[in-house]
């Protein structure tokens, strides 16, 4: 059984396929959406209350929580601040 990817990392495979950056961005968005939802649950916030705290609409909050939707750093910062957190973005 021979495979050109035998012994290589999954990241190497994604890089070879030309989709590594896309996959990393999608994963980061999913993690952020999950973290926001978990913090909302821990603080007893439903979507309506969270949207109110963010001074936005419930549909905007739903887009934020949708890992497939594009969101701005400004929106993520509003969400973080509403949950008593800070958003940190790094270049690594």
Helix content: 55-70%
What series of H and E elements makes up the topology?
A: HHHHH
* Main beta sheet: none
**Which regions have little confidence, pLDDT < 50, spanning 5+ residues?**
none
Number of separate domains: 1
CATH class: Mainly Alpha
Q: From the alpha carbons, calculate the radius of gyration and give it in angstroms.
A: 17 Å
| Overall pLDDT confidence | 89
Shape: elongated
Structural class: mainly alpha
How much of the sequence lies in strands comes to under 5%
Number of strands: 0
- Named CATH topology: 434 Repressor (Amino-terminal Domain)
Count of DSSP H/I helices: 5
Q: Give the full name of the CATH homologous superfamily.
A: lambda repressor-like DNA-binding domains
N-end to C-end Cα span:
38 Å
CATH architecture tag: Orthogonal Bundle
Features:
single chain, 92 residues, mainly alpha, 434 Repressor (Amino-terminal Domain), 5 helices
What does this structure look like?
The protein has a single domain, classed as 434 Repressor (Amino-terminal Domain) (Orthogonal Bundle), CATH 1.10.260.40. The chain is 62% helix and 0% strand. The longest helix is centred in the middle third of the chain and has 23 residues. It is elongated. α3 packs across α4. It has 92 residues and is mainly alpha-helical.
Helix and strand arrangement:
Blueprint: H1 10-17, H2 20-42, H3 47-54, H4 58-65, H5 73-82
Helix pairs in contact: 3-4
Quick summary of this structure?
The protein is mainly α and 92 residues long.
């Amino acid at each position: 059984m021979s495979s050109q990817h035998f012994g290589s990392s999954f990241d190497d495979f994604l890089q070879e396929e030309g989709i590594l950056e896309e996959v990393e961005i999608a994963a980061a968005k999913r993690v952020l959406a999950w973290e926001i939802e978990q913090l909302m649950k821990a603080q007893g916030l439903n979507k309506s209350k969270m949207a109110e705290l963010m001074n936005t609409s419930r549909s905007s909050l739903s887009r934020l929580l949708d890992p497939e939707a594009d969101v701005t750093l400004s929106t993520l910062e509003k969400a973080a601040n509403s949950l008593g957190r800070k958003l940190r973005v790094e270049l690594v």
